Amino acid sequence: xxxxxxxxxxxxxxxxxxxxxxxxxxxxxxxxxxxxxxxxxxxxxxxxxxxxxxxxxxxxxxxxxxxxxxxxxxxxxxxxxxxxxxxxxxxxxxxxxxxxxxxxxxxxxxxxxxxxxxxxxxxxxxxxxxxxxxxxxxxxxxxxxxxxxxxxxxxxxxxxxxxxxxxxxxxxxxxxxxxxxxxxxxxxxxxxxxxxxxxxxxxxxxxxxxxxxxxxxxxxxxxxxxxxxxxxxxxxxxxxxxxxxxxxxxxxxxxxxxxxxxxxxxxxxxxxxxxxxxxxxxxxxxxxxx
Length: 290
Ligand code: URA
Hints:
Number of helices: 13
Number of strands: 6
CATH superfamily: Uracil-DNA glycosylase-like domain
Radius of gyration: 24 Å
CATH topology: Uracil-DNA Glycosylase, subunit E
Strand order of the largest sheet: 1-3-2-4-6-5
Helix content: 55-70%
Strand content: 5-15%
Bound molecules: uracil
Order of helices and strands: HHHHHEEHHEHEHHEHEHH
Largest sheet: 6 strands, mixed
Number of domains: 1
CATH architecture: 3-Layer(aba) Sandwich
């Protein structure tokens, strides 16, 4: 093989490896070093195996030990869940404006998504917005730039909002349930959502919008504390209440749930129902602003 053949063969091997990674869903490199996680699992398993070999005489006490261990683990987890929440609540409550809320959120270590994300995605738009929209979690584009809704779904959202006279430059504020990107855009878990919630409650109480809009199932279910699907929840008006809001002197804010723009990109026929929701939002807004 001559030099150029060798280079071409290396190049096609590298391209094949890259293609394989894309095919299996890798969309971001988050570290310069690779970890053999299979190795970690095998090592962990080996440790467990050696620990749990039962002998007749000790079988009972070992299983007792094991359940005791489970109780200990569980109570440790519960205690740390509570501790995380107390920590989140005090950091959120201490914030008196959006800048201090962002700074306090950046100090919060209770959500593991912070470790894999590139940037904190806090919020964007007008501090005293008429409408505050809340999505699920940042995606790849948002994570890179630390700004919510700037990828393809954000562009669609901007376009839809413009039809009813709304924009982030004028009268809108945007944020998410979760401020850090979940790896591979997976759905955030309940514990991830719960650990960040005090910050979101305070975020809403500080922006004090006239209208809240929950984009998609995760946002709607979380903030309406409902287990219903988004198709049932969307298109209706709710009264959003929270103790954080009450502390800032507001009893409730009218809230509408609607479909997530990322879903509309996949199912354009559903834009029709979203258009109805947008008109309903505009109609209510007109009663305030004329
Ligand atoms: N999807 C969301 O829910 N939020 C973003 O910021 C971007 C995409």
